[in-house]
Here is the input.
Amino acid sequence: MAQENIIVINVDLAETRVAIIENGMIVELLVERENHRSAVGNIYRGRVTRVLPGMQAAFVDIGRDKHAFLHASDLLHPDEHEAEFESPQGGDEGTTGDTAPKPRQKGGRQSAKTSIRDVIREGEFIAVQVSKDQIGTKGCRVTADVSLPGRHLVYMPFSDRGGISRKIDSAKERARLSSILGQIAPEKGALIARTAAQQISQEALAADANYLVETWSDAKKAYTKHKKPTLLYEELSVILRVVRDYFNDSIAEIFIDDAREAARLRSFLQRLVPGRSDVVRLYEGDEPIYDAFGIEVEIRRALERVVELPSGGSLVIDQGEALTAVDVNTGRFVGAGARDQEETILATNLEAVAEIAYQMRFRNIGGLIVLDLIDMDRPTSRKKVMDRLMEVLRNDRAKTSVNSISRFSLVEMTRERTRESLGRTLHERCLYCDGTGHTLSRLTVANEIMREVQRRYDEVDGVEFEVKLHPGVIEVFKGELAPSLKRLEKQVGKKIILQGDPTRHLESFVVQVRSAKQKIMRESNQP
Here is the structure.
């Protein structure tokens, strides 16, 4: 089923998946599980549990299983917070007092020269917003610089500077929006016009602003009402959030396979973009919706380590703890001359960086990324590849920073990471190899077994060795190590009995020395 610029939503019993398809390609896939909803955008009343001046950071209890991390760069000055919040008298749970979010001074965020202990103290309360989900063993990252996104605008309660999306190029439209923002600006805080604000009427923008200001007012009331770490404002579900952030005139249809969520989505769209709720289509086909749209196949492809390129080359994507490495391998060269080879390398690298940009966005790979491209001798070739990379990255909603390409065709870059990558969401550490991706070879295990027997050969009260091991290792002893096993039996003067256990880990074995009595008992129990 070929479609362009559509959103396809699959609602299962415990998992919701939203695929965004642009020009026939799945550019992003968001997965939300019933008990693991993203916390990004949520606002909490938190309690500072630990302040670390050396790191210029603090840990904040926000009522979740792990304490959140707050860096000084995300902490605002405390001045004038009484004007924004009416703080309850006194504290609770042994606190030193009840404070509220730290509004920004006109000078900006906390100065790097100021110790974090001069701004917040252990035990006090503060309102924070999750900026990055819990990733791996790390808790959420939070900020005191709260921002509330709407359809057309973003409201920042503690800022004194508004703005307009850089993606709005028209000088005339920017001037129009700037004038409107000046007229609808709230008494406190600032507004930012999103890309979706283009050509939107002043009335619609004013309504969006009023909604956001009221939402913040409700959060403030909840802050003063509660006395413990608690959720003050919850971000929309993944379905509504994606529609709010991604829906525009280029989206022709939204397919969803759940009638209840379809009705809810139509109602939300009618409020968000009046007259466009008819784009929602309830999918009622016989086969699963992601099978019908070919999305399941693409998800499996996104989880593979090796990605084939049309030219015959390939990408090898290795995601580690500290960084992700992408190695570009060349395919079949066309032509035998040096010039032909250089042109083929250039063509392959151009194809590779386009695919890399797509894979990073689809897999949601973040953090430090190193691209190992095929070596190019000509500076002009390296420039063409970098220009192509920067071009394809413009379509990525995540912030990226790219260093210049080295003479060895290496590119270091970073990509904003706010949630787990697709691979880490859908995968877990391998229980067999413990996440290393490797196990000892059967030959290595067999040799280790023989060394263990040699260590214990002088246990004179034993008459035979019994080894419990994986059947795969027995095959090695029956094959290439059969002569070595016989020589070992002669060396230690004892028979070696191999007992296969298919439930045993390949690297696991137990060597036991049996006495004559134990040998007789074992033989008498054999059928």
Summary: The chain has four domains: 6-38+236-296, 43-233, 304-426, 442-525.
